[in-house]
Design brief:
The complex is a heterodimer of chains A (260) and B (254).
Chain A (H helix, E strand, L loop, with lengths): L2 H7 L1 H26 L9 H12 L1 H30 L16 H4 L1 H25 L4 E7 L6 E6 L8 E6 L4 E7 L1 H8 L3 H29 L6 H30 L1
Antiparallel strand pairs in A: 1-2, 1-4, 3-4
Helix pairs in contact in A: 1-2, 2-4, 2-8, 2-9, 4-6, 6-7, 6-8, 8-9
Chain B lengths: L4 E9 L8 E10 L5 H14 L22 E2 L2 E2 L21 E5 L8 E3 L2 E2 L2 H10 L19 H11 L6 H5 L6 H12 L8 H14 L10 H5 L7 H16 L4
Parallel strand pairs in B: 1-5
Antiparallel strand pairs in B: 1-2, 3-4, 3-5, 6-7
The chains are: A alpha+beta (260), B alpha+beta (254).
Chain lengths: 260, 254
Amino acid sequence: MSNFAKTFSSSLGKKLVMALTGIFLCTFLVVHLVGNLQLFKDDAGQAFNAYAYFMTHFGPIKIVSYLLYASIIIHAVYALLLTAGNKKARPVAYAVQKGGQNSPWTSRNMGILGTILLIFIVVHMGDFWWKYHNAELPYAKYEISLDNPNDIQVSELPYDANRLIHSEIVDVQAGKQIVVSKDLYKIVNNAFQTWWYVLLYVVAMAALSFHLIHGFKSAFQTIGWNNSNLVPIIRFLGVWVFGVLIPLAFAAMPLYFFFK
Amino acid sequence: MSNNMNLTLKVWRQKNAKTKGELVSYQADHVSPDMSFLEMLDVVNEGLIKKGDDPIHFDHDCREGICGSCSLHINGRPHGPKQGITTCQLHMRSFNDKDTIVIEPWRAEGFPVIKDLSTDRSAFDRIQVAGGFISVNTGGAPDANAMPIPKVVADEAFNSATCIGCGACVAACKNASAMLFVSAKVSQLALLPQGQPERYRRVQAMVSQMDAEGFGSCTNTGACEAECPKEISITNIARMNRDYFTAKLLKSEE
């Protein structure tokens, strides 16, 4: 085994893989959230559909998205490897063990929280990512007045295999811009009309919150960045940005469509 | 004598490393609150010996909280319910009359049970032998303060060096990880000038031995530092990781 391979199969090396993939997934959450804020725009999904097209068809972003899928898989596989090793390290369990008196609940349940998140990611990608790429979705046709960009007429076009996923033309004589997009917004809107589906999302975001309250700061501890200047910043980001703000903003999306 | 307590003990009894053990109940009556936990066990053992039974085996030596010999997982926590002390410094006044106390050995692949509550912690010695030392030529005693070391660094190194190697960190960790022990032993030398020549060789050798002994990985729960009788901080673990990754990924020599 090369020195490099040995490093990443050591107990510390495996934790480094968890930390680095974890931090990368955290940066993705920020991008995903900022993009999805367009769901709150009152434009029948025109901006959101244009964004969906951009994210799935712009080369550099496609490369990053494959890195992202790989990170999710590596993070989960290494979690399994580590857990298996950790179980082997204590072959006889304690009859009584009071973990609650010496460590936070989140830190002892990262595996359960992570499993909820993995199930959520599979459901979430199956319903939106897979459908957007493979299902015969209808199209939305937006006619936007050139004089008043807030004046948007929207109509539905049926699925047509030959139609471009996203196209824009400006008709100067008619005084409007015509945008035709595969209508992911509609799928999102429809999905979030079901109460149990909304509940699934809210529960998953609660799991995300607890996972990141421990995971974010833990990643930096593993890497070894824990001096007294950094720790307060990392803790603040881990709890308030990644543990509270981001999960709340994500959870607001299904609730917004359900109660709209 | 009115303060004396009657207690029920559930003690792990195991003949040797090869047999399976079980929890056995014992009655400990008229226990004085001024007794230490180990003295309470001594009294129980005297009773067992008088009856012709095998006394309960447990590790102990100095009974002053400085040698690291005593262990015991008491009611779900290493060294019992109090913080910053070893089992020998735990007194029966921390318990109440009619309490049931569950006493188990350290549980870890790296700490096999020798008998009852006594475990083989020689894995820690082997980790130390792998790299927890400095190689120096003994010569004349150097002048005091000839080698400048900032006070904060000296304090930090001293804090790391207070580790008594009892293994409570391993016992407390849900993964039976030895990282607090190993990182304290890495840090006490990595912080000081005398530790520099072997700094990166040391951390690699000790981590490699730690893995070979079958200890688990760190989940950063902080249970180890909460239970450590010497209150050693997990900043040591971050320092060990930093040195290990530096050695493995950023340095070509060693």
